[in-house]
From TrEMBL, chain A:
The organism of origin for this protein: Virgibacillus profundi
Lineage: Bacteria, Bacillati, Bacillota, Bacilli, Bacillales
Pfam families hit by this protein: PadR
Protein name listed in UniProt: PadR family transcriptional regulator
InterPro entries for the chain: Tscrpt_reg_PadR_N, WH-like_DNA-bd_sf, WH_DNA-bd_sf
UniProt domain Transcription regulator PadR N-terminal: residue ranges: 7-76
UniProtKB/TrEMBL annotation, chain B:
Domain ABC transporter: 5-236
Gene Ontology molecular functions: ATP binding; ATP hydrolysis activity; transmembrane transporter activity
Cross-referenced PANTHER family: IMPORT ATP-BINDING PROTEIN
Keyword Ion transport among UniProt keywords: no
Family that this chain belongs to: Belongs to the ABC transporter superfamily.
Keywords: ATP-binding, Nucleotide-binding, Transport
Cell inner membrane found in the keyword field: no
Higher taxonomy: Bacteria, Bacillati, Bacillota, Bacilli, Bacillales
Protein name as annotated: ABC transporter ATP-binding protein
InterPro entries: AAA+_ATPase, ABC_transporter-like_ATP-bd, ABC_transporter-like_CS, ABC_transpr_LolD-like, MacB-like_ATP-bd, P-loop_NTPase
One of the record's GO cellular component terms: membrane protein complex
Length: 165, 237
């Protein structure tokens, strides 16, 4: 997750001070990803150093305001345009399965079943989260949850496949 | 509320015996929403038929509020079913010559009970079909027909709702609508639901998922609040 780009996105919407960026981030991700104030300020320092944001000064309560620069907007668009490569095989359970096969682990079926149970629980929990997103009206976060559910569906099918192997 | 003990079902087809359920111990508590999943032929729909008293087991017992269904005659099972159980099917099974209102009222007629017009309209509101009472099934979309079927299944305030692939004929968006609706009846009114589905997306709406495999329960998982907190922290990691 790129804190840098999420702060640029928030500043693209409107100028904000540090604490507003923290609360804006929490709203953006429905408070699901923890971000502490320290991370916000260190990221802001780097963004300012790289001329991606600038400060027009302090507000009436003496809080330093930030705005996005032209360079910052370009950086945001470049990041949005760039496709994301994924490391599909570097999965913890894949690796565990590989090692289990390597040592001829006798409880491999049990290992697969327990993994499946965990993933089924994830399905129940993700659906609960989806309901919350429905209630909060956050359609974008709901779509992320839908995406995670589709991944889980594929993972569970794969577990059934290796269980038959 | 409902419990099966050592439930077995063998079908005789052309002299050949097929064992569909091989000893199922399963129970559902009042107010629970349970999803039964499994591949085709794993016995999940047969279990639903037995729970609803539509068929009797070859061996074992089904207790509905302490009453052993398999010991009852077909006529007695029908009476129990009409009073205590609501059914929703994949293919809706609405009566094509009856209006929406008449379809919903049908279970009350069948049981010789007074038709409660207020309750029908209240249910029509709940399933988001206000003003559709005079329409006929052929005038409705698949999702709307399933909404009528849910209203029909709930008009007699059954103790338990049995749903067999209720979203099987619907695309994902319509499925979500139907599942949101079932979920609302479960959460807001405490409706006990047992739903058979092959769709993981649908099963996620339940409190508990029971996985069937070759006529036996393979595994089951339950959603708990403690797990949810742990899940959220892992999901965000």
């Amino acid at each position: 997750m790129s804190v840098k780009h999420s702060l640029l996105a928030l500043l693209y919407e409107k100028p904000r001070h540090g604490y507003e960026l923290k609360t804006g981030f929490d709203e953006l991700v429905e408070s699901m990803w923890p971000l502490n104030a320290g991370q916000v300020y260190t990221t802001l320092d780097r963004l300012e150093r790289d001329n991606l944001v600038e400060s027009p000064g302090h507000d009436l309560k003496d809080r330093k305001q930030y705005t996005i620069t032209k360079q910052g907007k370009d950086e945001l668009w470049n990041w949005l345009e760039k496709p994301v490569g994924r490391s599909l095989l570097k999965d913890e359970f894949y690796f565990k399965y590989l090692c289990a096969s390597f040592v001829d682990y006798k409880d491999k079926q049990r290992m697969i079943q327990v993994q499946k149970q965990t993933m089924m629980k994830d399905v129940l929990n993700l659906t609960q989260l989806r309901k919350q997103m429905n209630q909060s009206g956050n359609k974008t976060m709901k779509m992320l949850v839908e995406g995670a559910l589709l991944h889980l569906e594929a993972d569970i099918k794969w577990l059934d496949m290796i269980a038959r192997d | 509320m409902i419990q099966t003990i050592g439930l077995k079902k063998v079908f005789n087809t052309g002299g050949e015996k097929t064992s569909v359920l091989k000893g199922i111990d399963f129970s559902v508590q009042k107010g629970e929403f349970v999803a039964i999943m499994g591949p085709s032929g794993s016995g999940k729909s047969t279990l639903l038929q037995l729970l609803g008293g539509l068929d009797v087991p070859t061996e074992g017992a089904i207790k509905l509020d302490g009453v052993e269904l398999q010991k009852k005659t077909e006529k007695q099972r029908t009476i129990i079913r009409r009073r205590k159980i609501g059914f929703v099917f994949q293919s809706y099974q609405l009566l094509p010559t009856l209006s929406v209102y008449e379809n919903i009222a049908f279970p009350l007629h069948a049981d010789g009970r007074k038709v409660d017009s207020v309750a029908i309209h209240e249910l029509l509101n709940a399933v988001d079909l206000k003003g559709y009472d005079k329409r006929f099934p052929y005038e409705l979309s698949g999702g709307q027909q399933q909404r009528v079927a849910i209203a029909r299944a709930l008009i007699h305030q059954p103790d338990i709702l049995l749903a067999d692939e209720p979203t099987g004929n619907l695309d994902r968006e319509r499925s979500s609508d139907i599942l949101d609706l079932l979920s609302a009846f479960h959460q807001d009114r405490g409706q006990t639901i047992v739903m058979v589905t092959h769709d993981l997306f649908a099963a996620g709406y339940a409190d508990r998922i029971v996985l069937f495999k070759d006529g036996l329960i393979e595994t089951e998982v339950q959603r708990e609040d403690d797990d949810y907190a742990e899940f959220l922290s892992r999901f965000m990691a």
